[in-house]
C-alpha cells in the first residue's frame, strides 16, 4: 500500500543524473586516514583516546565516537554480506 506513494520507485532518476555510486565525505582525507589508522589499532577507543584523536583531527569527541561506531557497523555489515 505504501509503494504507490514512493515517487523514486515510480520515476527513478536517469543514469545521466545519478549512477548510484556517488560517495560524499564529511571529513578531509587526512582526517579519515588518521581515523582509519587508529581504527586498525583499536576499534573501541576509550574516552581519553577519543579526546586525543579529536584534538589531532580537529573534530569533537562526539564526531570521533560516531565515526568509530559507524565504521564498526559498516565492517559488521560487510562481513555479514560476505558470508
Automatic annotation (TrEMBL):
Q: Which Gene3D superfamilies match?
A: Homeodomain-like
What highest taxon heads this organism's lineage?
Eukaryota
- The Homeobox domain extends over 18-78
Q: Annotated DNA-binding ranges?
A: 20-79
Kindly list the places in or outside the cell where this protein is found, as annotated in its UniProt entry: Nucleus
Which keywords has UniProt assigned to this entry? Developmental protein, DNA-binding, Homeobox, Nucleus
* GO cellular component entries: nucleus; transcription regulator complex
GO molecular function annotations of the record: DNA-binding transcription factor activity, RNA polymerase II-specific; RNA polymerase II cis-regulatory region sequence-specific DNA binding
Keyword RNA-binding present in the record's keywords: the answer is: no
Annotated region described as Disordered, given as residue ranges: 49-83
- Show the Pfam families listed in the entry: Homeodomain
Database matches in InterPro entries: HD, Homeodomain-like_sf
Family per similarity comment = Belongs to the SIX/Sine oculis homeobox family.
Q: What is this protein called?
A: Homeobox protein SIX6
Species for this entry? Drosophila rhopaloa (Fruit fly)
Amino acid at each position: 500500500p505504501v509503494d504507490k506513494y514512493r515517487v523514486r520507485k515510480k520515476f527513478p532518476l536517469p543514469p545521466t543524473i545519478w549512477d548510484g555510486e556517488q560517495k560524499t565525505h564529511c571529513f578531509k582525507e587526512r582526517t579519515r586516514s588518521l581515523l582509519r589508522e587508529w581504527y586498525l589499532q583499536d576499534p573501541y577507543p576509550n574516552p581519553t583516546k577519543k579526546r586525543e584523536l579529536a584534538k589531532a583531527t580537529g573534530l569533537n569527541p562526539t564526531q570521533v565516537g560516531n565515526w568509530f561506531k559507524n565504521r564498526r557497523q559498516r565492517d559488521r555489515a560487510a562481513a555479514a554480506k560476505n558470508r
